């Protein structure tokens, strides 16, 4: 703005000089008309420059005004932003302070609770010790007797747990041919705990490791004569006896096993020191709804094919007669079997001195 004014003043002085020179020249000629025309022309030029200068000044002032307004607006926004940041910081500081205070209060309460519990526990211990001392003074023999009983129970419980753990560790989970069992004689049957092959079988079974390469599941053993085989339907369904003595595995368990795959049956008869066997390449029992109907395959062996006579028959006991005879065969023979009429083979009947004469074993083997 100042530079434009200086230039304008310089131009005015320049014009004045030119006018003076022109006036000198014109004075000589005394031509007022020319002088007036020149002066008017110069006035017009001066007015035009003055108008332009005024417009430029107005534009500059407007720009300065807008710049000042913008600076004021920015300053106001900066103050608002500072206020927001200050408020957020104060809120954050307050929350942190309150959180720390709550943490200290909680820690103090927790410490106090622990102290109270410790004092209570200490009082209980002192009371218990005092009670024990009092009882010991009054009845030392009774306390010793109680401690002895507790000790014996702990020893018995520990021994039972150890036995259970060892049994679970060394008891195999399958009955296979030519299988050697750790810490078990190869010439004797061993118990098997099934967990995968027969999901419905929740009891150990006995595996024969001797006959024909081993791997036979024993479903019946009758050799000592100490177990009564004249039993009702429920006993034959669920099984009876123990694996280390005479037993019947149970029709329901036999059905579960034979229903899981294809099995063959091996019957071993020992009488007066002579050993005979009968093999059937297929064996299965139906479920209880079909009275455990017997299914047999082809026979081979040395004991005679007496069991084929009962093929397709339902199981009978003295309290559930499913045979085809007019009399109750199970009651007549004091046993239980797949009777048809008069049985050709009846290993379950009562026989005096049975354990002195021979034994009967029934085996299953998977294909």
UniProtKB/TrEMBL annotation:
Pfam families: Fibrinogen_C
Cellular compartments per GO CC: extracellular space
Listed InterPro entries: Fibrinogen-like_C, Fibrinogen_a/b/g_C_1, Fibrinogen_a/b/g_C_dom, Fibrinogen_C-term_domain
Fibrinogen C-terminal domain mapped to chain residues: 166-341
The name this protein goes by in its record: Ficolin-1
Organism encoding this protein: Elysia marginata
């Amino acid at each position: 703005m100042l530079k434009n004014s200086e230039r304008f003043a310089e131009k005015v002085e320049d014009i004045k000089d030119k006018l003076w020179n022109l006036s000198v020249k014109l004075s000589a000629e005394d031509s007022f008309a020319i002088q007036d025309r020149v002066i008017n022309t110069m006035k017009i030029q001066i007015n035009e420059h003055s108008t332009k200068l005024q417009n430029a000044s107005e534009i500059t002032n407007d720009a300065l005004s807008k710049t000042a307004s913008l600076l004021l607006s920015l300053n106001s926004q900066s103050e608002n932003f500072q206020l927001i940041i200050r408020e957020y910081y104060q809120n954050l500081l307050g929350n942190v302070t309150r959180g720390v205070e709550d943490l200290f209060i909680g820690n103090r309460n927790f410490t106090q609770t622990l102290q109270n519990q410790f004092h209570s526990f200490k009082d209980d211990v002192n009371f218990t010790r005092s009670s024990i001392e009092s009882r010991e003074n009054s009845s030392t023999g009774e306390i010793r007797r109680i401690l002895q009983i507790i000790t014996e129970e702990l020893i018995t419980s520990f021994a039972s747990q150890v036995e259970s753990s060892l049994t679970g560790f060394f008891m195999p989970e399958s009955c296979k041919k030519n299988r050697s069992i750790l810490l078990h004689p190869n010439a004797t049957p061993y118990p098997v705990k099934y967990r995968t092959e027969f999901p419905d079988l929740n009891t150990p079974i006995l595996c024969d490791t001797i006959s024909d390469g081993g791997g036979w599941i024993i479903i019946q053993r009758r050799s000592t004569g100490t177990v009564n085989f004249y039993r009702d339907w429920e006993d034959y369904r669920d099984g009876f006896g123990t694996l280390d003595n005479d037993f019947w595995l149970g029709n329901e368990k036999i059905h579960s096993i034979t229903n899981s795959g294809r099995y063959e049956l091996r019957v071993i008869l020992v009488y007066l020191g002579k050993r005979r066997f009968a093999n059937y390449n297929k064996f299965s029992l139906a479920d209880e709804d079909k009275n455990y109907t017997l299914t047999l395959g082809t026979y081979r062996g040395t004991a005679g094919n007496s069991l084929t006579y009962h093929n397709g028959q339902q199981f009978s006991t003295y309290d559930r007669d499913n045979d085809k005879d007019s009399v109750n065969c199970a009651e007549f023979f004091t046993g239980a079997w797949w009777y048809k009429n008069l049985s050709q083979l009846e290993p379950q009947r009562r026989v005096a001195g049975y354990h002195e004469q021979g034994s009967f074993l029934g085996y299953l083997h998977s294909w």
